[in-house]
Amino acid sequence: MNRSTSGLEQALQPMMQNSVVGMEDSAAISREVAQVQGQMIIAKRFPRNEEQSLKKIEAACSRPTLARSAVYEYARGGSSITGPSIRLAEAVARAWGNIKSGLEEIESNDRETKVRAYAYDMETNDIAEMIFTVRHVRDTKKGTAILTEQRDIYEAVANFGARRLRSCILKVIPGDVIDYAVDLCRKTRAAEVKITPETIGKLEEAFKAFGVNRAQLEAFLQRKLEALTTSQYLRLQDIWTGMRDGVTKAEDFFDINLSDQAQAAAKAQETAEARKTKKAAEKKAEVKEEEKVPVTPADDGLDDEDDLADLDAAWDDGAF
What we know:
The chain is an alpha+beta fold. It is built from 13 helices and 8 strands.
């Protein structure tokens, strides 16, 4: 269920739902209701200063750690789509002010968990919410695996919930504010990128966590990683963020059939080409060295001035 409504009733919806599934302590409900009401009163009394909020957003987006994970990319219908990540949405919500957001478990059993994601602007009373169900399963290459460990279930719920929470936050914050934050993050990232062997190594390690090897990266880029450009590096960051947030998969961008064997073959070919280039350079150097060897004039037997004098005398005597 996906709704976008307004009012105190919607803000208190999670408490009412929890009471239906067994929350019998009415005093606890009353405390939660009073807390929300108190937050609303404070928000009305101290409304956001949009100019100051924008300055806070600028400060947040100038941090490289946030900027690196601020945008994600995913493939749909043969084209690539980019958007703000959950990390950026949460950072903008904090800076914008008077936004209450989160995930709340409605009910859970051995098979699935029902969760509510919501974002509430306590100044305008605008609220966006999504109620969804997460099955306790994980898709693997060998099929569907049933999740039984609490940690695995928690991670599955958090992964699904993060995407829906992001959507809710973006509905209650003006779109131009979000676009401004995305643009700021792109500028921060571009300013800090330096393509070095260390950078390329970290990039490889980051993608290995999602089963993407060097050969697949180079096939996607259509060039060696050593020739990586800044714009390509930033795009790979966006794709990695999309995979981390669960909005895209490696096979949406990379050739999953390009195995490590193909990578090894490509490496062997690269080594052979390097050796060939080295031999050509050595041969060229040898030719240049030969050109530098001085030419020794032919020995005519005339070693010094005395020999020349004897030759002249013989000529005068008619010996020649």
